[in-house]
Structure formats: C-alpha cells, structure tokens
Amino acid sequence: MNLAPASRPRADRDRRSGLLLHPSSLPGPFGIGDLGPGALAFGDFLARAGQRLWQVLPLGPTGFGDSPYQSLGAFAGNPLMVSPEALHEDGLLTAAELEEARVGGEGPVDYGALLPRRESLLGHVADRLPARAGPGLRRDLERFREERASWLPDLALFLAVKAAHGGAPWTAWEPELAAREPGALARAAERLRADVEARVVAQFLFDRQWRALRAHCRERGVALMGDLPIYVAHDSAEVWARRELFHLDGRGAPTVVAGVPPDYFSATGQLWGNPIYRWEDRLDACVGFLVERARSALAWLDEVRLDHFRGFEAYWAVPAGSATATEGAWRPGPGRVLFERLRQGLGGLPFVAENLGVITPPVEALRREFGLPGMAILQFAFGTDPQAPGFRPHRYAPDLVAYTGTHDNDTVAGWWASDGSDSTRKPEDVVREKALARRYLDTDGDGIHWVLLRALHASVAGTVVAPVQDVLGLGSEARMNRPGTAAGNWRWRLREGQLAPALAGRLADLAALYDRA
Predict the structure, then answer these.
(1) Sheet of 463-467, strand order
(2) Among residues 154, 227, 408, 470, which one is catalytic?
C-alpha cells in the first residue's frame, strides 16, 4: 500500500504498524501535551517499538466543546501545543516565565483554565521576538507571513476580535464586523494590532516546532498521518471570511447543518451543527477550498485520513434548528469532481478514506475509482454494525488500514467490560457479540487488547493502527471522545513513564514477527 511519494519515510515493505495519539495527550508539566521534548520522546518510542506511523487528530485551535473537529481555524495550528521548553531554548522565554508556565500534575487537559495563561505567555514572546530573535528567525517569520497570506491575516484578526468580544461567536459581533465591511476591519486591525501580531507569531512558532518534530520522526523512519475533517466549524475564521461557500442566511447563521442519521452511537443520529458547503451552486469554489485545505495539511503531514469520506459522495443535511439528526436527508456531494481536482492539484492522493457508517455501493465505488485505502475497526467486527463482517481479519485486503478502535469509540478493555449502555446495543446484542469474539479470536478475554493487536498484525492489512490507550490496556476512563456528548471530551493524557521500555519491546516483537518492522 503506497500512500506517499518515495521521498517520504516508509517501511521497507508495504506492511507496517503505528499508533494513534494526539499531541495534546502527551505527558508533561504544562497542562497539555506539546511539541517539545515529550513529542520528540514519543517519536523515539515509536522507532524503538518498530512502529512506522504516528497518527494524530486535527491540529487546529479547538473551539466548541474543545473538539479538534470544531476548530477555530481550518489551516491553523493549536497554540496551546507550542512548547514552552522549546521557546526557552530559543531565548524567547525567561527561566522565571518557564517556571510560571508549569501547572503541576499530569491530569486531564483543562482548556478553559489553560487558554488565558498560554495566550498571555505567547503575547510576551511576540513582544520580545523582534529584539531577541536572530536574523534567520526573523527572515523565517516574514517568509511564513508571505506563504500563508491566503488565510493567516483573516485567522489572526478573527481570533483577536473574538477574544475582544469575550469569546462570542462572530454572528454576535457588531453587524459591520460580522459582515466584514472594509472600514470596520481596518479599525479593528488597528485597535487590536498587538493581539493580531501575537496570533501571527503563535502560528509561526507552532509551524516551526511541528516541522522540527516531523524532521525528528522522519530521521527515525516514522511517517505522520493526520486528519482532514470534511466540514469546518461555523464559528471559524474560514466561515467568517468565506461566507459565500456555505449555506448561511443574511445574518450568517446556517440554514442547514451537518450530521449523520441514526448509528452505532445514537438512535437519533449525530447532529454536528457544522455549516454545509454550497456544492450545488458554488462547486468550483468549494472544491478549490478543499484542495487548498488538503495542500496545507500535507505541508505538515505525510498522509491524511479523510474524515467522513462518505460525505463527499452524499451528505446528510439537517434543517437548522432541528432537535435531532433524524430530520435530515441525503444530498449529493461533489464526488469524482473533487478527487480529480485533488489529484491534479497535489500530484497524487496520499489519503486514507474513513469509510465508516452508512456506506453504500456508490461510496465504495468512488473510493475504489481513486485507489484510496479504506478502514476496518476490529472492535466493531462482532456486533450488529452492518459493516461487521468486513471488519473481521479474514475478510481484509492488503489495501486497508485496520484499527483496534478509533478516537470516537471505547478502548478495547472498556468495550470488553461494557454492558452496551454506551451505544445503541441491547444487552442481548452484547452477549452475542462477546460470544462471537471469543470464538473468532480463540480467547477467554484475558489480555483482550493484545489479542486484538495480534489478530490485526497477523492479517494481510497493509497498515494496522492502535490508539495508545489500547496498547496500554486502559479502560473507559481513558476514552478520548464520546460522540453525542458536548463536554468532558478530548482531555485524556498519558502519564510520565507509562510508555515503558518493556512495552516498546513487546510492540517491536509483534511488528517483527508479522513483517511490519
């Protein structure tokens, strides 16, 4: 399975394995995982463990519900993940400021408490950068401004104005600012000049640290796979700056929103609330926007998982104001037009299609036409999911990315201990599901996470990936996200020392045994 040009880091053979861990989940003393020593150490762990892939979630600044899938900027990096230690090494933070940035403990991320502290810290960095940075760093900053001119000014102004309005969504700003009247934009930019500049510098620092991390991983033969959500958040710089691409009313509110019909997670479907593209009458512009987003993502990543791939063939549109997603209907997506443009614009399609959920023959035909690997979730292989038979390893094809689970579902250990109340399963469904899993995997359930890991590694799937929580055998307390819930998600973090040498050795042995090292 060859997803990336030959110049990108790949295993000697097509078979490989990797781990899923968002940088925010890394351990460290600053309240959230960042791109500093902890991230470099995780790259080292992957290499020692025989892993060739590090998969992350969307990297942008989080918005509603702290979700990386509801980012305030579709092209941006999350400033909370800028490493204070790396800033100190660059001479941009004093020792006292570095000490002040420590929050103590390694508990879950508290985004609300962390954000003002980190924005204040990055504001100090922006103030002193012109004086303390060497000529090379200043040149890099100016080059960064020039290369991101299509989105960076809008993002920085959007974030500064949003902060000045106490975090209110852009539709609640003064009408002239919400409508982007030139005079209002100019006055806001002048009034908030220092904050706007701090936002630009924060993006530059994220980019600089991410590129250093990527180079570190590349030297160790570890590729980076990220996530490109099909939709963008309504309260984002992109919707504010490019209203013409979305179904919005005269005040800027969505007229239809995204979601999915009833599924494994919810009997009433999932109501995401993102505005929907105007594919039917702005096709060329909307396709161009997706190509721009993909090109931007691949400046940081070797491969990209296309989240909610089925929405490119047909998407679920729900009238704004609906109580649940059941009131939606299917509408045609851009289909092959988008992927032809992506192939032309990128020179290839280094993508994995997230083809989970209500998948129809036309969706699979689109995926196969463009040679995009699909996904299989082993945790879903034994239950009532319509895709379950295809998720069993004897049905796999080499052109597949197979997972123990994803960021959206329970950990393997949590799933095995569950009574089904976390999903649409009935108690009798759970009994049958576990009975089939025991028979299929020839297990009594002891060490169930390693049983699933071994089954995936032994399969013909070209790539296998496990969330770090699954290689550690953690329970439901370590879930990253519970779909359909708005609070308490995306907060989980590793503790220092959990990724022990013995764990790296066991993973390396498994990868070597099944020709994935």
Answers:
(1) 351-353, 303-306, 223-228, 53-55, 16-20, 463-467, 400-403, 374-377
(2) 408
Choosing from 313, 354, 410, 470, which is the catalytic residue? 354
Contacts 24+ apart (CB under 8 A), 139-145: 140/204, 140/208, 141/201, 141/204, 144/203, 144/204, 144/207, 145/200, 145/204
Helix (H, G, I), strand (E, B) or coil at 98: helix
* Region for 371 from its dihedrals, namely left if φ exceeds 0, alpha if ψ lies in -120 to 50, beta otherwise: left
pTM score, whole prediction: 0.95
Q: With a cut of 50, which residues of the chain have pLDDT below it?
A: 1-12
The string of DSSP letters for 436-450 reads HHHHHHT--STTHHH
Buried b (16+ CB within 10 A) or exposed e, 348-377: ebbbbbbbbbbbeeebeebbeeebbbbbbb
**What six digits make up the tokens of 205?**
């620092």
Q: Whole-angstrom Cα distance, residue 218 to residue 8?
A: 8
Q: Active-site residue 444, yes or no?
A: no
Token readout for 310 is 């089925």
- Look up 307 and say whether it is catalytic: yes
Coil, helix or strand at residue 107:
coil
Whose CA is closest to 381, among 270, 271, 462, 461? 461
100 catalytically annotated: no
pLDDT digits 0-9 by tens, 171-188:
999 999 999 999 999 999
Neighbours of 174 (CB within 10 A): 12
Q: Which of 34, 85, 90, 307 is catalytic?
A: 307
Residue partners of 175: CB distance under 8 A and separation at least 6: none
